[in-house]
């Protein structure tokens, strides 16, 4: 067992990069491997920066919340980028780096530059996983809200938000958290945070 509170924002992306960088490569490696590595390096750096930007916004706007980063998610390689416990309940956040891109939510699906993505479905899986896991540890149902936070997006339009996942930006995140109705008393916040920060809760 270890304390998940030691995780810094973007810890999961750092770990994936380290595994890829230290993976043995045989002589039969493809000649375009270096170009692929550069692309992967760029992606993980964007993921880390996005997680750090959201963490910075949370530190500024979410003083009443206990915050964990890079919590084990619904699959072997998935992760909850940020998990919050506070008066408004439990919240899972999925950060998506999309600098300069255009986003739109249509019929509950997030489109980036006009192309549909599976981001909302992934965020819903993480929300459901957190709700089930924390309910088992806490001994009673735990309400969990979820949001997808678009970092660096040029424009976000929405005609219909998904029923269980909010798609938003870092600038709007603090106001949304403040508007959540109070569902947890201070004692419950501390207990749930204590349970959520234990690695054994998620395995």
Question: Would you kindly provide a brief summary of this structure?
Answer:
The chain is an alpha/beta fold and 203 residues long. It has helices spanning 11-22, 33-61, 119-138, 170-179, 186-196, and strands at 66-72, 79-86, 89-97, 102-106, 109-112, 115-116, 144-151, 155-158, 165-169.
Strand order in space, largest sheet: 1-2-3-7-9
Strand count:
9
The total of helices stands at: 5
How helical, in percent, are the residues?
40-55%
Poorly predicted regions are none
Report Rg.
18 Å
Distance between the termini: 10 Å
Molecular structure report:
The radius of gyration is 18 Å and the shape is globular. The strands form two sheets. Strands 1-2-3-7-9 form a five-stranded mixed beta sheet, with helices on both faces. It has a four-stranded mixed beta sheet with strand order 6-5-4-8, with helices on one face. The chain has helices at 11-22, 33-61, 119-138, 170-179, 186-196, and strands at 66-72, 79-86, 89-97, 102-106, 109-112, 115-116, 144-151, 155-158, 165-169. With 203 residues, the chain is of the alpha/beta class. 40% of the residues lie in helices and 26% in strands.
